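Researcher: Let's run the pair from yesterday's discussion. Sequence first, then tokens, for each.
Model: Starting with the first of the pair.
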Amino acid sequence: LQTSYESAQLFVTFYRLFSCETISSLKEKALKLGWTENDFLSFLTFVACFYGNSGNYKSFGDSKIVPDIEKEKLRALLKVSAAAQNYSNFLKHYDMIEERVFSLNEKTVTIGLPDKGVSGFFSSNVNKEDTDIIADYFKKKRLEEWNTRLLKNIKDGETVYTIRLASIDHELSNEKFSGATILIERCDYGPILLHTVHWLKKALPFVANENQEKMISMFIKHFESGDINEHKEGSRYWIKDIEPVVEFYIGFIENYRDPVGTRASFEGFVAVVNKSTSKKFQKLVKKAEDILTRLPWEKEYEKDVFLKPDFTALDVISFASDIIPQGINIPNYDAIRQDEGFKNVTLSNVMAAIPAQKINFLTEEDEALFVKHYKDSFEVQVGLHELLGHGSGKLFQRNVDGTFNFDKNVKDMITGQKVTSWYEPGETWSSKFGDLSNPYEECRADGVGYYLSTYPDILKIFGFEGEMAEIIKYVNWMLELRSGLLALEFYSAETKKWRQAHCYGRFVLLNVCIEAGKGLVTIDEVKGDDGEPDLLFKLDKTKIDSVGKPAIGQFLRKLQAYKSTGDYGNGSKFFMNIGNVSNRALKWRDIVIKRRQPRKIFVQSNTLLDDNGFVSLKCYPASFEGVIQSFVDRYSSEEIEALEKVWLRDFPLFNH
């Protein structure tokens, strides 16, 4: 629903298709209809990719996923399927989305505001001017947009904006603003949230402590009312729930897929603690206050008090989201993170699920080091990125009563003069920096990981000393900077836009190190073993400390200065100038795209509860069939009907 208007019904179609009969039965029917073996494999690939991205647009890159099968062939298979016999509206509802599933016109190839792309956060007639008006409304009302969608209507020549809040409750209020009528409507996703609340209430008798009980109770209230303050209150109890054996969080959390960068996708996860790996992270937390003093900005730009968070390594049991991350720093509410605390988690079994494949653009020696030490070095990077990257830095704010949370005499780290900008009441990092907030912040957190991984005592916390510590440091810098080269796949040369926040940030850091010069990073255009154009990436390990660290340090200092003071004008120019994609980089991009490898899909297990109350874990093969069966087993027909009910209501508004 939040991805594209066709995604929800495609989800319903696939659930009914694969729950009514086996994959082998469908394959037999397809072959009788004239499909080839490759046709059917292509179809399964599309379905698995659709499930893995929670929609028909890539969660990592925002470009459209289209079936590599003729439209007529797919329709013929659906027509003879058991689902078509069991559900009277099966084909009728598929008809309503078929054209959009296969469409590759200019407005449907990527996520974006409706006048230029596709989004489930806005009705099909919303444009940038509309989102600016609503952003101003939220700022003046000191509200936040996390769990909202925006609809626009023209009634008797007047613009009517409807701000829908995700909730079970139905309520409507209205007021005038900026020459338009603003309707606040509580009821979005209501039939779906009824099921969410049902299962949360089922979980309440099994909580381990009072914090968990209060947390889940507040989340229930939030989903019932749509009040974001109730989710914030639940998040406060969540950060107080230290070192639980079973970890859980749910809500409208990450705003990567909103073209404006303020509305969040729904997600929820359940995981169990990996105790051995967690010990390393807890040691890092204990030393965090000392480590923070090494970051390359003035102490006034750091939080007044470092609120030691819970930091654990988790093995995911279930993660409902458009992407399964490898590490998380949440909650995302600025005020809570800065003044009350947060949690860091790394997802160990996600990090470990790396397929065996060639590592492009490296020497044989570097490739061998990469394969051998990837997990260990990435564990270091994720730990530093989440705890001391996202967990560091202060936002300068004017309070509602006119006071400030910083000394007005503090010097601007860029100009050397007094600070002249800050966040006003109602402004947040996301609202101030908009769609640049995510790449900017991911870049800052990654840069902190680069910078701090050069300290031997920090690497010792993770169990690496002497020669091994040097290897881990080198592999970390190598894999991260190489990822900045691979990131070019997610840059659109036609629109000159980045389609993925982390990738934009990684490319910026690559440019910082290239511009540092002195042979720190070199990228040569060569011929591959196949005779086709290739690239050779090299990092001079002897210059990481002498050239790389100072360059990253100076860069981070400026990033933090602009972020702390809320200086979007200068901060955006600085960031975008370094992130400029040159003609040389465009040549690299062509080679990167030609040699790209498929992105992995994580196959999730399911927990099953029998009549006696015993829980078992059902695992699935690492295959397209495994992904599909995992999703079919996860949902009930009643939950699918709730999804379809919401989709049918929304169809006229979101049918671009």
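Model: Moving on to the second of the pair.
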Amino acid sequence: MSRLLYEHSVSYRGYLIIPFAFQKISDTPPGIGYRQHKVYSYKLLAENGSKDRLHKAENPSECYGDSVESIVNLAKEYIDKNLDCIGKGDAFKCRYTYRNNLIIISQEAGKYYYDHYPPESLNNIAAPKIFKSEFDCISWIKEGIDGLHFKRRVG
């Protein structure tokens, strides 16, 4: 699996649909005129977290697409046909992609916190930290990611 394409993620009915390039296939042998095509799949994050059977599920519809748009539409169809409850709000509306990482900012009682997913997995690596503003939260996260990026380049 290649990295998760967070920048193409779509929030839909309590889920975040996250596409990724599942496989590359070619229609000609290597050489002149060699063309590769990508086959796309998706993963889901659920607004309700681990309480939801589809939280962090990989392609429960078992369908694949030839574009990001087609796989997102297939995921929406699956959600429409198979789920009883709809998310109450949009828990994913304040999401950002930074250096291929997914950052989801949440607010409760005037305090901000975040979820942080690296490019290659849906393992939340956020620090348990509370912030006074969304800006403070984003600034702190960017500083941490930039520090990791710098260490990897030097080391």
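Researcher: Give me one sentence on the second I can quote.
Model: The chain has two helices and six strands.
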